[in-house]
Amino acid sequence: MADDRTGSIDTLLHEERRYSPSQEFKAAARWNSPAIYERAQRDPDGFWAEMAKELDWFEPWNKVLDWDVPKAQWFVGGKLNASYNCLDRHVKTWRKNKAAIIWEGEPGDERILTYQDLHREVNRCAATLQRFGVHQGDRVAIYLGMIPELVIAMLACARIGAPHTVVFGGFSPDALSDRIQDSEVKLVITADGAWRRGNIVPLKENVDRALKTCPSVRTVLVVNRVMNATRVPMDEGRDHWWHREMDHSGGTCVEPAVLDSEHPLYILYTSGTTGKPKGLMHTTGGYLVGTQMTSATVLDIKDTDTYWCTADIGWVTGHSYIVYGPLSLGATSVMYEGAPDHPDKDRFWAIIEKYKINVLYTAPTAIRAFMRWGSEFPLRHDLSSLRLLGTVGEPINPEAWVWYRKHIGGDRVPVVDTWWQTETGMMMIAPLPGITELKPGSATFPLPGIEADIVDDRGNSIPLGGGGYLVLKRPWPAMARTIWGDPDRWKRQYWDRFPGIYFTGDGAKRDKEGYYWILGRVDDVLNIAGHRIGTMELESALVSHDSVAEAAVIGIPHEIKGQAIAAFVTLRADETRPHKELIEELKKHVTERIGAIARPDKIFITAELPKTRSAKIMRRLLRDIAEGHILGDTTTLADPNVIQSIKLQYEERE
Ligand code: PRX
């Protein structure tokens, strides 16, 4: 258990501050009576069926849930199409000319796509994909910055039933290649570059490097984003300009494929406890039901709202709450391409003022950075359009929660802290803003239809007031169905620890009133600025460097990022270079292997690592050293002197 953090959580459990919804908010909210929790509990299948009726189905389902651990099927026999639900059904209504996407580029350029515009572009893209031989079931990788073409490409894939795998533009060529190979991608969509803090991220160059080891890819479509078209080399036969191919497709309409409810919608890679990222596979019907429901009820997005989720679509938050949830609801979703501090630290607030944003969904790590920058930046702008704020990705400390509510929300709007994961696809533990009394720092309660619990080592439920492992006891519609190509790992990792129930990998506590307080990961996964990175992944990246013999990676507390990466490494005997030079080289090496998000904050070169007699590295002791704690139990160490020598080296460097 994350017992090193329980001290602070105990003080959290005594949090006295409470925030109830205003009468006005309550009156207008989609859900405003606690009876909804009882309704869902009384008859979960009936509840989910009711939620599913909000979508358009080509053919109805004949069974809500078929559950044979760990294989779930939702809305069995039902037929639908995600792109139809996000587009076609809206263009038949008054929403035809409503903005679906309001996009702002980092340099300040702007594009607004109505539902009709988006429908047209998606059709052209779907026709293009078909022309290049992409069939139902084929995988397409999308490696783009935050531009509208990313959404167009995703929905085009969904239209023809080709599962997409979006790879975050910050990942390195190696990481991209691993993902493309794992899902045997046929076609890649990328751009000549992406803007980030005024610089160009060389996406196409990265794709060229990645594809050296990806024989399955036959075609690359390249969006011209940074206008240096003449400068990116194009491989004749393989690479094609997106705009030319889209023009070719003219006004073609591609009938949305009639897909089974369980047809794969996408694969999204995330880090686990081994060196190899896992591709979580999400399917169509249940996923749309879950993301649409929570967009409507937790984010409370209404037709009159302008909604902005600041996540990158390379992560699950963007999939569920920029694209599929809001668009199936017919909402107006804002997308911003660049960094929050470009050209200045008020960029987010300028965007909110400019588009009169009503609902904002962002991450605690961003909020902590805004706090550090100071309230003068939001003060420069009129933020009075905001009526709801949300957070996701990591535990939010009460000070950040209260700052967010006060300085961004004018001390008048609800703040919903939403707990969920790539695996869950949808929000799971979160307030209903028209009902729930909020406590700063708590994700509050499991949503209607969701059954969570906190259990001990043996799977026994822990009474209110205690802490343990966070589990989910009943399947839910948006859950991932498997790990792509590795169903055994899906079972082992999530369903075997506590047989038949889902283990989240998180630790949590519940206070006397049943509010959930998430502690963070209890496995070998770090959460760096809201991004998941496995310690094993980092360690394999480090040992792939010629000079490194062994490596052990731990997370250390970080004021803004929540956690930072600290690596302890031992060197090969023949390595004699100065440590300072080597440390820089190793940081660069990890960045090249995985991406900038994985760059270690600190690297300590030590003579040995603390190990048990059975040669297991004792990370807990390294964590104790890094956090300056009194060392825990060292009796199982093979050589107790090792710890003293590491401690000395660590203290010297600090
Ligand atoms: O540790 C939890 C943390 O993020 C993990 C899931 O990461 P990922 O799959 O990348 O998805 C992030 C966005 C949904 C969880 O296991 N986490 C996510 N949201 C919260 C959180 N921790 C505390 N509070 C949250 N609201």
Structure explained in plain terms:
The protein has 21 helices and 30 strands. The protein is an alpha/beta fold and 654 residues long. Strands 5-4-17-16-18-19-20 form a 7-stranded mixed β-sheet, with helices on both faces. It has a 5-stranded parallel β-sheet with strand order 7-6-8-11-12, with helices on both faces. Residues 1-7 have low confidence and may be disordered. The protein folds into 2 domains: 6-508, ANL, N-terminal domain (Rossmann fold), CATH 3.40.50; 529-653, 2-Layer Sandwich (GMP Synthetase, Chain A, domain 3), CATH 3.30.300. Adenosine-5'-monophosphate-propyl ester binds at residues 270, 315-317, 392-395, 417-422, 443, 504-506, 518, 520-521, 527, 532. Adenosine-5'-monophosphate-propyl ester (PRX) is lined by residues 270, 315-317, 392-395, 417-422, 443, 504-506, 518, 520-521, 527, 532.
Principal-axis shape equals globular
CATH class of the largest domain: Alpha Beta
Profile the largest sheet: 7 strands, mixed
Bound compounds: adenosine-5'-monophosphate-propyl ester
Mean pLDDT: 94
Rg is 24 Å
Helix tally equals 21
List segments where confidence is low: pLDDT < 50 over at least 5 consecutive residues.
1-7
**Share of residues in strands:** 15-25%
Structural class: alpha/beta
Total count of domains: 2
**What is the correct CATH architecture of the largest domain?**
3-Layer(aba) Sandwich
